[in-house]
Amino acid sequence: MERKHPSMEVLFMIRRKLLLTLAAALAAIGMQAGSPPPSHAVTQISASIDFYDDLSPYGSWERVSRYGDCWVPLDVPVGWRPYTVGYWVDTDYGWMWVSEDPWGGIPYHYGRWAFDNYYGWVWVPDDDEVWAPAWVAWRYGDDYVGWAPLPPDAGWRSGSGLTISVSTLDRRISRNGWCFTPVRTFGTTRIRSYVLPPSRNVTLLGRTRNVTRYEVYNSLPAERGFRPEIIERATGRTFPRYRVVDSRSSNLRNVAIQGRTIEVYRPRISGVKEGRARFAPEGESRSSRAMIQRQESEQRRFEQRMRQERGALQREHQRESSQPSRDRAQPDQMRQRQQAEMRAQQERETQERRSLDQRRRIAGERDQGQQRPTRERGQNQGQTQDRQDQGKSKDKGQDQNSGQNQDDQDKSHGRGHGR
After folding, report:
1. What pLDDT, on a 0 to 100 scale, did the predictor assign at position 122?
2. pLDDT digits over 174-209, tens only?
3. 155 in helix, strand or coil?
4. How far is residue 316's CA from residue 340's CA, in Å, rounded to a whole number?
5. With contact defined as beta carbons under 8 Å apart, do 83 and 137 qualify?
6. pLDDT digit string (tens) for 328-375?
7. Which of 69, 82, 294, 338 has its CA 20 to 30 A from that of 242?
8. Residue 143 half-sphere exposure, CB side, CA atoms within 13 Å?
9. What is the torsion angle, in degrees rounded to the nearest 10, for the CA atoms of residue 187, residue 193, residue 194 and residue 196?
10. In the prediction, which pLDDT does 308 show?
């Protein structure tokens, strides 16, 4: 039988592989034609997004002495904290916050939050804004999950990640900034129904550890410390993972969930402070009777809400005292811890009352069309409040172990918006 020369067989095989490779490449090009951009494509926009017009209908821009111009949400209930009205979903960028607030598409994915003794929670924008699934720190342990907004000085470098360490986060995040929930309730769409009163944080901060770990993924921040496997092992439930893709819409507030994908408009935004300089003062005085009525309603609900929190705390203390636990071996320590939680509850009520009164005053000025320069109003009142708080901060020794108040830390470090 006649056989082909070995060199001819090799040439034939090489030619066949080349033709198959070329055909596959041409087919791939044809499939990609007209398709949406890949998920890692991040639009670069410079000074074309105006946070101020988008957020002003829902709050007020105030001059906070340490951070500059900050947004104060007005249409929020008593006891509100960031990252509580909505739910968490697992994505290829880590846990993403899907907000149910009408303004949530901006402050939960850009900038940072800080607690001010006068205004309460304020959103702090920076001149260079980077999108993230949620700018939060995470804690886990003893069947509890906790999250808290990153402080304003937690900057981001695309080449190395967060600019501050985990140990620094524990010192910079205020104790009341943490939201804790039992592991079994994490991942539900009604997560705010299971968030424990902040007074419990005195104990829960000692029972959990900080697991925050940010990495760079597709040129954007991704949180890898609090992995979904942790919750899945503890609960036996599985969490679907969503792929975040760029939206064809240029609306920051719209988030579309379709199947296992989430469409988000997530540009990198520069020149935010320049946009503030061009912002017209009359834009802040849009009257809203609905907002006034909401503030009056929250004022009436304040005492009821605080009684509910005190009652829940007392029931938890009674449960701990009646059940055998590791704390029963040390009743004195348990009693001291419970007393510390009650003091924390009293401090919280004082802070909430102050912030509620301030939001109500701001809403009243807007409704009446009063137009004082925002910078003078916030700066003068903030300085007065700072002087009042300086004498009180010496009595808050319990915050040293669980994360001190954001404002007290700013005084001791002598810095403001240090990103």
Report:
1. 95
2. 898 999 999 999 989 999 899 998 999 999 999 999
3. coil
4. 14
5. no
6. 557 888 888 888 888 888 888 888 888 888 877 887 776 666 544 443
7. 82
8. 4
9. 140
10. 82
For strand 44-46 and strand 268-270, is the pairing parallel, antiparallel, or unpaired?
parallel
Instruction: Tell me the C-alpha distance between 355 and 117, whole Å.
Output: 8
What does the DSSP assignment read for 112-126?
A: EEEEETTTEEEEE--
CA distance 404 to 359: 24
Q: Which portions of the chain are predicted below pLDDT 50?
A: 1-48, 280-287, 327, 371-419
Q: What are phi and psi of 48, to 5 degrees?
A: -115, 0
CB atoms within 10 A of CB 219: 11
If 0-12 CB within 10 Å is exposed, 13-18 middle and 19+ buried, where does residue 363 land?
buried
Is there a contact between 411 and 393 (Cβ–Cβ < 8 Å)? yes
Q: What is the spatial distance between Cα 104 and Cα 253, in angstroms, rounded to a whole number?
A: 7
Question: How far is Cα 405 from Cα 296, in angstroms, rounded to an integer?
Answer: 28
CA distances from 146 to 3, 177, 209, 338, 343 (A): 74, 10, 9, 20, 21
What number of CA atoms fall less than 13 Å from residue 188's CA on the CB side? 14
Report whether 69 contacts 56 (CB < 8 A).
no
Name the phi and psi angles at 147, rounded to 5: -140, 155
CA distance 233 to 128: 39
> Residue 88 and residue 67: Cα distance in Å, rounded?
28
Length of the chain, in residues: 419
Q: Who contacts 273 (Cβ-Cβ below 8 Å, separation ≥6)?
A: 68, 125, 127
DSSP strand pairing (241-246 vs 261-264): parallel
**For helices 374-392 and 406-413, what crossing angle results, to 10°?**
90
Count of CB atoms within 10 A of residue 203's CB?
A: 23
β-bridge pairing 144-149 and 220-223: unpaired
